[in-house]
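Onboarding guide, step 5: your first structure request.
Type a short instruction followed by the sequence, for example:

Predict the 3D structure of this protein.
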Amino acid sequence: MTNRRSFIKNTGLLALSLPLLKSNLLASSTQKKLPAIGIQLYMVKEDMAKDPAGTLAQLGKMGYTQIESYGGDKGIFWGMTNKEFSKLANDNGLTLISSHFAGNEEDFEKTAALAAEIGMKYLIYPWKGPQKDIDAFKRIAAEFNDYGAICQKNGIKFAYHPHDYPYKPVNGQLPIDVLLANTDKEFVDFQMDYYYTVTEGQDPETYIKKYRPRFRLCHLRDVLKERLPAGSEDESACDLGQGIINYPHLLSTALDNGMEYFFVEQSRFYHETPLQSARVNLDYLKNLKLV
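The system replies with structure tokens like these:
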């Protein structure tokens, strides 16, 4: 009798637990995750300048799978040909997705062709600087449309990376709004830098939703609470998860609205080396539960 009662009791408990177990399994199977985690190589520029192969090897071993380059002294391919640099990245489990690059139209077209040849997805214009009037930003928008057309002709995409100045009012308007309104969505995407958007008092979620899906890429670092509202100077930056930016929610929103590429870019280091900081920020994103 005791065994029979125990059997009935255990069977009942199992029946009660099955819906909960099923719910938990379903939740875990549908948990949103970043498709890949990348790093902007400017964060480890000193290491790259000394030893590109060794630095990429370390980034790959950490678990990064994508990289974004920039137009440094050795060019976006670090003194190598496009195919040599792409192979070096691939050999270390890394894919070269994009690069920041600013140049005249002739240089831009040459670089776009080289980038497209190795399967890169984007060339990104990183900096125009503050302008005297809002009409200057309208002219910049027209220039970006031309760059976007060049990229499309060569089989790659174009994007713009806003720093702090597009979020500062000029003639009663925000330049970021003018740039978004006056660029052709077929030619020009944008790279959200959460740090600058937040430190300039704007809401990243509003922009990502309103202009869906134009914010296709992003840069990731956090903002110290005690440094606000100090503005967008780099001294208010901190490791991911140590500041005020709600990345579990914002990155979930980003995925829902067309964002595809996510790059760590820390500028203020709380560890002995930038590579150690790269590891800390990667670990945060690996364990991040999006909501």
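Each response can be followed by summary notes, for example: The chain has one domain: 37-286.
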